[in-house]
Protein backbone atom coordinates (compact mmCIF):
# COMPACT_ATOMS: atom_id res chain seq x y z
CA UNK A 1 0.00 0.00 0.00
CA UNK A 2 1.13 3.53 -0.71
CA UNK A 3 -0.29 5.38 2.33
CA UNK A 4 -3.28 7.24 0.87
CA UNK A 5 -5.59 4.23 0.60
CA UNK A 6 -6.92 4.38 4.17
CA UNK A 7 -8.02 8.01 3.73
CA UNK A 8 -10.30 7.02 0.86
CA UNK A 9 -11.52 3.89 2.67
CA UNK A 10 -12.20 5.90 5.83
CA UNK A 11 -14.19 8.40 3.79
CA UNK A 12 -16.40 5.58 2.52
CA UNK A 13 -17.11 4.52 6.11
CA UNK A 14 -17.59 8.09 7.38
CA UNK A 15 -20.10 8.80 4.63
CA UNK A 16 -21.66 5.30 4.87
CA UNK A 17 -20.99 4.53 1.20
CA UNK A 18 -20.37 0.82 1.85
CA UNK A 19 -21.98 -0.45 -1.34
CA UNK A 20 -21.10 -1.36 -4.92
CA UNK A 21 -21.48 2.28 -5.91
CA UNK A 22 -20.41 5.65 -4.52
CA UNK A 23 -17.87 8.46 -4.85
CA UNK A 24 -14.81 6.18 -4.74
CA UNK A 25 -16.16 4.05 -7.57
CA UNK A 26 -16.71 7.18 -9.68
CA UNK A 27 -13.37 8.65 -8.63
CA UNK A 28 -11.42 5.47 -9.36
CA UNK A 29 -13.03 5.22 -12.80
CA UNK A 30 -12.06 8.82 -13.54
CA UNK A 31 -8.48 8.20 -12.35
CA UNK A 32 -8.20 5.24 -14.72
CA UNK A 33 -9.50 7.35 -17.61
CA UNK A 34 -7.05 10.19 -17.00
CA UNK A 35 -4.10 7.82 -16.58
CA UNK A 36 -4.74 5.72 -19.68
CA UNK A 37 -6.25 8.47 -21.84
CA UNK A 38 -9.33 6.34 -22.51
CA UNK A 39 -12.82 7.86 -22.63
CA UNK A 40 -14.72 5.50 -20.35
CA UNK A 41 -13.92 2.94 -17.65
CA UNK A 42 -16.03 0.76 -15.38
CA UNK A 43 -14.61 -1.00 -12.32
CA UNK A 44 -15.74 -4.53 -11.48
CA UNK A 45 -15.04 -7.40 -9.11
CA UNK A 46 -12.14 -8.85 -11.12
CA UNK A 47 -10.26 -8.84 -14.37
CA UNK A 48 -11.88 -12.15 -15.18
CA UNK A 49 -15.37 -10.68 -14.68
CA UNK A 50 -14.36 -7.76 -16.90
CA UNK A 51 -13.33 -10.11 -19.73
CA UNK A 52 -16.61 -11.97 -19.28
CA UNK A 53 -18.52 -8.68 -19.62
CA UNK A 54 -16.45 -7.67 -22.67
CA UNK A 55 -17.33 -10.88 -24.49
CA UNK A 56 -21.03 -10.51 -23.62
CA UNK A 57 -20.98 -6.94 -24.97
CA UNK A 58 -19.40 -8.18 -28.20
CA UNK A 59 -22.27 -10.62 -28.62
CA UNK A 60 -20.28 -13.82 -28.08
CA UNK A 61 -22.71 -16.73 -27.88
CA UNK A 62 -22.64 -20.50 -27.48
CA UNK A 63 -20.84 -22.15 -30.39
CA UNK A 64 -18.99 -18.99 -31.49
CA UNK A 65 -15.23 -19.02 -31.82
CA UNK A 66 -12.96 -16.52 -30.05
CA UNK A 67 -9.28 -16.17 -30.97
CA UNK A 68 -7.06 -15.93 -27.90
CA UNK A 69 -3.34 -15.68 -27.24
CA UNK A 70 -2.12 -19.10 -26.09
CA UNK A 71 0.79 -17.76 -24.03
CA UNK A 72 -1.21 -16.25 -21.17
CA UNK A 73 -2.81 -16.90 -17.80
CA UNK A 74 -5.96 -19.04 -17.94
CA UNK A 75 -8.22 -16.13 -16.95
CA UNK A 76 -7.78 -14.67 -20.46
CA UNK A 77 -9.50 -17.73 -21.94
CA UNK A 78 -11.86 -19.03 -19.26
CA UNK A 79 -14.62 -16.46 -19.85
CA UNK A 80 -14.89 -17.70 -23.47
CA UNK A 81 -16.08 -21.02 -22.07
CA UNK A 82 -18.48 -19.36 -19.56
CA UNK A 83 -20.48 -18.36 -22.64
CA UNK A 84 -20.33 -21.78 -24.28
CA UNK A 85 -18.07 -20.30 -26.97
CA UNK A 86 -14.90 -22.01 -28.19
CA UNK A 87 -11.37 -20.69 -27.77
CA UNK A 88 -8.97 -20.93 -30.71
CA UNK A 89 -5.40 -20.39 -29.55
CA UNK A 90 -2.75 -18.33 -31.34
CA UNK A 91 0.97 -18.66 -30.61
CA UNK A 92 3.39 -15.82 -29.91
CA UNK A 93 6.09 -13.99 -31.84
CA UNK A 94 9.60 -13.76 -30.38
CA UNK A 95 9.97 -9.94 -30.03
CA UNK A 96 7.29 -9.36 -27.39
CA UNK A 97 6.23 -12.95 -26.60
CA UNK A 98 2.66 -11.91 -27.44
CA UNK A 99 0.19 -12.78 -30.22
CA UNK A 100 1.80 -13.42 -33.61
CA UNK A 101 -0.16 -11.37 -36.17
CA UNK A 102 0.76 -13.65 -39.08
CA UNK A 103 -0.57 -16.72 -37.30
CA UNK A 104 -3.61 -14.67 -36.35
CA UNK A 105 -4.37 -14.03 -40.00
CA UNK A 106 -3.75 -17.67 -40.94
CA UNK A 107 -6.17 -18.70 -38.20
CA UNK A 108 -8.87 -16.24 -39.29
CA UNK A 109 -8.70 -17.42 -42.90
CA UNK A 110 -8.89 -21.06 -41.90
CA UNK A 111 -11.69 -20.57 -39.36
CA UNK A 112 -13.78 -18.81 -42.02
CA UNK A 113 -13.14 -21.62 -44.50
CA UNK A 114 -13.88 -24.35 -41.93
CA UNK A 115 -17.11 -22.90 -40.61
CA UNK A 116 -20.30 -24.12 -42.25
CA UNK A 117 -21.66 -20.60 -42.78
CA UNK A 118 -18.29 -18.91 -43.44
CA UNK A 119 -18.85 -17.09 -40.15
CA UNK A 120 -16.09 -15.03 -38.56
CA UNK A 121 -14.57 -15.56 -35.13
CA UNK A 122 -16.39 -13.17 -32.78
CA UNK A 123 -13.45 -11.54 -31.02
CA UNK A 124 -9.67 -11.50 -30.60
CA UNK A 125 -8.15 -11.48 -27.11
CA UNK A 126 -4.60 -10.08 -27.22
CA UNK A 127 -2.50 -10.06 -24.06
CA UNK A 128 0.44 -7.90 -22.90
CA UNK A 129 2.12 -10.65 -20.91
CA UNK A 130 4.43 -9.70 -18.03
CA UNK A 131 3.78 -6.06 -18.97
CA UNK A 132 5.38 -6.16 -22.43
CA UNK A 133 3.03 -4.54 -24.95
CA UNK A 134 1.86 -6.78 -27.80
CA UNK A 135 2.42 -5.52 -31.37
CA UNK A 136 -0.95 -3.79 -31.37
CA UNK A 137 -0.53 -2.01 -34.72
CA UNK A 138 -0.03 -5.33 -36.50
CA UNK A 139 -2.78 -7.13 -34.58
CA UNK A 140 -5.27 -4.30 -35.16
CA UNK A 141 -4.39 -4.15 -38.85
CA UNK A 142 -5.32 -7.83 -39.26
CA UNK A 143 -8.39 -7.52 -37.00
CA UNK A 144 -9.68 -4.46 -38.88
CA UNK A 145 -9.18 -6.13 -42.25
CA UNK A 146 -11.71 -8.78 -41.19
CA UNK A 147 -13.83 -6.55 -38.96
CA UNK A 148 -13.22 -8.58 -35.81
CA UNK A 149 -13.17 -6.60 -32.52
CA UNK A 150 -10.08 -6.78 -30.30
CA UNK A 151 -10.18 -7.16 -26.53
CA UNK A 152 -6.91 -6.12 -24.95
CA UNK A 153 -6.08 -8.12 -21.83
CA UNK A 154 -3.91 -5.51 -20.11
CA UNK A 155 -4.25 -7.21 -16.68
CA UNK A 156 -0.46 -7.32 -16.32
CA UNK A 157 0.34 -4.14 -18.23
CA UNK A 158 -1.07 -1.09 -16.45
CA UNK A 159 1.57 1.59 -16.99
CA UNK A 160 3.01 0.04 -20.16
CA UNK A 161 2.76 1.89 -23.45
CA UNK A 162 3.72 2.00 -27.12
CA UNK A 163 4.97 5.43 -28.21
CA UNK A 164 3.12 6.91 -25.21
CA UNK A 165 -0.22 5.32 -26.09
CA UNK A 166 -1.14 3.37 -22.97
CA UNK A 167 -1.91 -0.33 -22.87
CA UNK A 168 -5.64 -0.60 -22.23
CA UNK A 169 -6.44 2.05 -24.84
CA UNK A 170 -5.96 0.13 -28.11
CA UNK A 171 -8.84 -2.33 -28.38
CA UNK A 172 -12.61 -1.96 -28.57
CA UNK A 173 -12.90 -3.20 -24.97
CA UNK A 174 -9.88 -3.49 -22.73
CA UNK A 175 -9.30 -5.12 -19.38
CA UNK A 176 -7.24 -4.30 -16.29
CA UNK A 177 -6.84 -6.35 -13.11
CA UNK A 178 -6.31 -5.16 -9.53
CA UNK A 179 -5.84 -8.63 -8.09
CA UNK A 180 -3.42 -8.92 -5.16
CA UNK A 181 -0.49 -9.94 -7.36
CA UNK A 182 -0.79 -7.14 -9.93
CA UNK A 183 1.22 -3.91 -10.13
CA UNK A 184 -1.47 -2.06 -8.16
CA UNK A 185 -4.22 -3.82 -6.24
CA UNK A 186 -7.59 -3.40 -4.56
CA UNK A 187 -7.15 -6.93 -3.08
CA UNK A 188 -9.40 -8.08 -5.90
CA UNK A 189 -10.85 -6.08 -8.75
CA UNK A 190 -10.77 -5.25 -12.42
CA UNK A 191 -11.77 -2.67 -14.99
CA UNK A 192 -13.22 -2.53 -18.46
CA UNK A 193 -12.08 0.36 -20.68
CA UNK A 194 -13.42 1.67 -23.97
CA UNK A 195 -13.61 4.71 -26.22
CA UNK A 196 -17.32 3.87 -26.47
CA UNK A 197 -19.10 5.21 -23.40
CA UNK A 198 -22.31 3.37 -24.27
CA UNK A 199 -20.52 0.03 -24.02
CA UNK A 200 -19.22 0.84 -20.54
CA UNK A 201 -22.70 2.01 -19.41
CA UNK A 202 -24.06 -1.28 -20.62
CA UNK A 203 -21.33 -3.15 -18.73
CA UNK A 204 -22.30 -1.33 -15.51
CA UNK A 205 -25.95 -2.21 -16.15
CA UNK A 206 -25.20 -5.92 -16.69
CA UNK A 207 -22.86 -5.96 -13.68
CA UNK A 208 -25.58 -4.70 -11.31
CA UNK A 209 -28.14 -7.43 -12.04
CA UNK A 210 -29.46 -5.82 -15.25
CA UNK A 211 -32.32 -3.99 -13.58
CA UNK A 212 -34.70 -2.29 -15.99
CA UNK A 213 -35.81 1.27 -15.22
CA UNK A 214 -38.94 0.48 -13.20
CA UNK A 215 -40.03 1.03 -9.59
CA UNK A 216 -40.28 -2.75 -9.12
CA UNK A 217 -37.60 -5.31 -9.94
CA UNK A 218 -37.87 -6.03 -13.64
CA UNK A 219 -35.36 -7.73 -15.92
CA UNK A 220 -35.11 -8.00 -19.69
CA UNK A 221 -31.53 -9.33 -19.67
CA UNK A 222 -29.62 -11.86 -17.58
CA UNK A 223 -27.59 -9.84 -15.09
CA UNK A 224 -24.46 -10.36 -13.03
CA UNK A 225 -23.27 -9.16 -9.65
CA UNK A 226 -19.87 -7.87 -10.78
CA UNK A 227 -19.70 -4.24 -9.59
CA UNK A 228 -16.74 -3.16 -7.45
CA UNK A 229 -17.37 -2.13 -3.84
CA UNK A 230 -16.96 1.56 -2.99
CA UNK A 231 -14.64 0.45 -0.15
CA UNK A 232 -12.27 -1.36 -2.51
CA UNK A 233 -12.46 1.46 -5.04
CA UNK A 234 -11.10 3.66 -2.23
CA UNK A 235 -8.03 1.44 -2.09
CA UNK A 236 -7.80 1.78 -5.88
CA UNK A 237 -7.81 5.59 -5.72
CA UNK A 238 -4.94 5.51 -3.25
CA UNK A 239 -3.06 3.00 -5.38
CA UNK A 240 -3.39 5.16 -8.50
CA UNK A 241 -1.38 7.83 -6.66
CA UNK A 242 1.60 5.47 -6.35
CA UNK A 243 1.29 3.75 -9.73
CA UNK A 244 4.17 5.75 -11.30
CA UNK A 245 6.38 4.72 -8.33
CA UNK A 246 5.37 1.09 -8.72
CA UNK A 247 6.29 1.13 -12.40
CA UNK A 248 9.65 2.69 -11.53
CA UNK A 249 10.26 0.08 -8.81
CA UNK A 250 9.44 -2.85 -11.11
CA UNK A 251 11.66 -1.45 -13.83
CA UNK A 252 14.47 -0.96 -11.30
CA UNK A 253 14.17 -4.66 -10.33
CA UNK A 254 14.53 -5.56 -14.01
CA UNK A 255 17.55 -3.26 -14.47
CA UNK A 256 19.26 -4.71 -11.42
CA UNK A 257 18.77 -8.31 -12.51
CA UNK A 258 19.91 -7.54 -16.05
CA UNK A 259 22.97 -5.70 -14.83
CA UNK A 260 23.96 -8.57 -12.60
CA UNK A 261 23.11 -11.53 -14.81
CA UNK A 262 23.27 -10.69 -18.49
CA UNK A 263 27.01 -11.29 -18.71
CA UNK A 264 26.40 -14.98 -18.03
CA UNK A 265 26.45 -16.87 -21.32
CA UNK A 266 23.03 -18.44 -21.92
CA UNK A 267 20.96 -16.06 -19.75
CA UNK A 268 18.89 -13.55 -21.74
CA UNK A 269 16.35 -10.83 -21.00
CA UNK A 270 13.47 -9.58 -23.14
CA UNK A 271 14.35 -6.22 -24.72
CA UNK A 272 11.77 -3.54 -25.40
CA UNK A 273 11.29 -3.04 -29.15
CA UNK A 274 11.77 0.60 -30.32
CA UNK A 275 9.05 2.81 -28.85
CA UNK A 276 7.83 0.06 -26.50
CA UNK A 277 7.74 0.65 -22.74
CA UNK A 278 7.06 -2.27 -20.39
CA UNK A 279 6.03 -1.81 -16.76
CA UNK A 280 8.24 -4.89 -16.18
CA UNK A 281 5.54 -6.31 -13.91
CA UNK A 282 7.62 -9.47 -13.65
CA UNK A 283 11.28 -9.82 -14.54
CA UNK A 284 11.72 -12.92 -16.68
CA UNK A 285 14.83 -14.68 -17.94
CA UNK A 286 15.42 -17.31 -20.60
CA UNK A 287 17.96 -20.02 -19.91
CA UNK A 288 19.70 -21.70 -22.83
CA UNK A 289 21.04 -24.86 -21.21
CA UNK A 290 23.45 -25.57 -24.06
CA UNK A 291 25.20 -22.26 -23.45
CA UNK A 292 25.06 -22.60 -19.64
CA UNK A 293 26.80 -25.99 -19.87
CA UNK A 294 23.71 -27.89 -18.82
CA UNK A 295 22.18 -25.60 -16.19
CA UNK A 296 18.44 -25.43 -16.92
CA UNK A 297 15.76 -23.03 -15.77
CA UNK A 298 14.57 -25.84 -13.47
CA UNK A 299 18.02 -26.07 -11.87
CA UNK A 300 17.83 -22.34 -11.16
CA UNK A 301 14.30 -22.61 -9.80
CA UNK A 302 15.25 -25.46 -7.45
CA UNK A 303 18.39 -23.69 -6.21
CA UNK A 304 16.31 -20.65 -5.37
CA UNK A 305 13.68 -22.82 -3.68
CA UNK A 306 16.40 -24.43 -1.55
CA UNK A 307 17.11 -20.90 -0.25
CA UNK A 308 13.39 -20.34 0.40
CA UNK A 309 13.10 -18.01 -2.62
CA UNK A 310 10.04 -18.53 -4.80
CA UNK A 311 10.30 -18.27 -8.58
CA UNK A 312 8.00 -19.69 -11.24
CA UNK A 313 8.30 -21.05 -14.78
CA UNK A 314 6.81 -18.81 -17.48
CA UNK A 315 3.08 -19.41 -17.92
CA UNK A 316 2.18 -22.77 -19.44
CA UNK A 317 0.52 -22.03 -22.80
CA UNK A 318 -3.23 -22.63 -23.01
CA UNK A 319 -2.90 -25.10 -25.89
CA UNK A 320 -0.83 -27.32 -23.56
CA UNK A 321 -3.38 -27.21 -20.72
CA UNK A 322 -5.39 -30.39 -20.08
CA UNK A 323 -8.64 -28.39 -19.97
CA UNK A 324 -8.08 -26.98 -23.50
CA UNK A 325 -6.88 -30.25 -25.08
CA UNK A 326 -9.53 -30.15 -27.77
CA UNK A 327 -9.24 -26.48 -28.71
CA UNK A 328 -7.82 -25.66 -32.16
CA UNK A 329 -4.42 -23.97 -31.95
CA UNK A 330 -2.17 -22.20 -34.47
CA UNK A 331 1.38 -22.83 -33.38
CA UNK A 332 4.96 -21.95 -34.25
CA UNK A 333 6.83 -23.39 -31.26
CA UNK A 334 7.57 -20.01 -29.64
CA UNK A 335 5.39 -20.31 -26.52
CA UNK A 336 6.36 -23.94 -25.90
CA UNK A 337 10.01 -22.95 -25.96
CA UNK A 338 9.38 -20.01 -23.61
CA UNK A 339 7.58 -22.33 -21.19
CA UNK A 340 10.44 -24.80 -21.31
CA UNK A 341 13.27 -22.31 -20.81
CA UNK A 342 11.79 -19.30 -19.05
CA UNK A 343 11.66 -18.29 -15.41
CA UNK A 344 9.94 -15.43 -13.56
CA UNK A 345 12.23 -14.01 -10.89
CA UNK A 346 11.00 -12.45 -7.63
CA UNK A 347 9.62 -9.09 -8.79
CA UNK A 348 7.63 -7.43 -6.01
CA UNK A 349 7.64 -3.64 -5.79
CA UNK A 350 8.82 -3.87 -2.17
CA UNK A 351 11.97 -5.95 -2.73
CA UNK A 352 15.00 -4.41 -1.06
CA UNK A 353 18.47 -4.29 -2.52
CA UNK A 354 19.38 -7.06 -0.02
CA UNK A 355 16.51 -9.23 -1.27
CA UNK A 356 17.60 -8.77 -4.87
CA UNK A 357 21.20 -9.50 -3.97
CA UNK A 358 20.16 -12.75 -2.28
CA UNK A 359 18.44 -13.85 -5.50
CA UNK A 360 21.33 -13.06 -7.83
CA UNK A 361 23.89 -14.58 -5.45
CA UNK A 362 22.16 -17.97 -5.70
CA UNK A 363 21.94 -17.77 -9.51
CA UNK A 364 25.52 -16.56 -9.94
CA UNK A 365 26.80 -19.33 -7.69
CA UNK A 366 24.99 -21.96 -9.74
CA UNK A 367 26.20 -20.56 -13.07
CA UNK A 368 29.82 -20.17 -11.93
CA UNK A 369 30.53 -23.76 -10.83
C1 LIG B 1 -4.52 -11.65 -13.50
C2 LIG B 1 -4.87 -11.86 -14.91
C3 LIG B 1 -6.20 -11.93 -15.34
C4 LIG B 1 -7.36 -12.00 -14.40
O1 LIG B 1 -7.51 -10.95 -13.53
P1 LIG B 1 -8.23 -11.19 -12.11
O2 LIG B 1 -8.45 -9.82 -11.62
O3 LIG B 1 -7.27 -11.97 -11.26
O4 LIG B 1 -9.49 -11.94 -12.37
C5 LIG B 1 -6.45 -12.02 -16.69
N1 LIG B 1 -5.46 -12.07 -17.59
C6 LIG B 1 -4.18 -12.02 -17.22
C7 LIG B 1 -3.13 -12.04 -18.29
C8 LIG B 1 -3.83 -11.94 -15.88
O5 LIG B 1 -2.55 -11.91 -15.51
- Spatially, the strands of the biggest sheet line up as 1-9-8-5-4-2-3-14
The CATH fourth-level homologous superfamily of the largest domain: Type I PLP-dependent aspartate aminotransferase-like (Major domain)
CATH hierarchy class name of the largest domain:
Alpha Beta
**Tell me about the biggest sheet?**
8 strands, mixed
Give the CA-CA distance, first to last residue: 40 Å
Provide the number of structural domains. Answer: 2
Q: What best-fitting shape do the alpha-carbon axes yield?
A: globular
- Counted beta strands: 15
| Category by helix and strand content | alpha/beta
Q: Give the helix tally.
A: 11
CATH architecture of the largest domain: 3-Layer(aba) Sandwich
Order of helices and strands: HHEHEHEHEHEEEEEHHEEEHEEHEH
The name of the CATH topology of the largest domain is: Aspartate Aminotransferase, domain 2
Integer-rounded radius of gyration: 21 Å
Low-confidence segments, given as residue ranges, are: none
Report the sheet-strand fraction: 5-15%
- What number is the mean pLDDT? 97
Q: Which percent bin holds the helix content?
A: 25-40%
Ligands (ions, cofactors included) = pyridoxal-5'-phosphate
Amino acid sequence: MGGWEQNFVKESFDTNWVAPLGPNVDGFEQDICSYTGIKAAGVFTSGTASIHLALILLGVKAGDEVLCQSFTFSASANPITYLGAKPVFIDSEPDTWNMDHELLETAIKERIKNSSSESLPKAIIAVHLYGMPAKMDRILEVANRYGIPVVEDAAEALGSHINRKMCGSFGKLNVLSFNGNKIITTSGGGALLSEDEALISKARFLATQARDAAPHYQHSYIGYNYRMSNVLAGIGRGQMMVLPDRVAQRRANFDFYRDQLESFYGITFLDEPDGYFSNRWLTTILVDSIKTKGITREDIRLSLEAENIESRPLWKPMHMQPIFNDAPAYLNGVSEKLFENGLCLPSGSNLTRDDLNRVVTVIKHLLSV
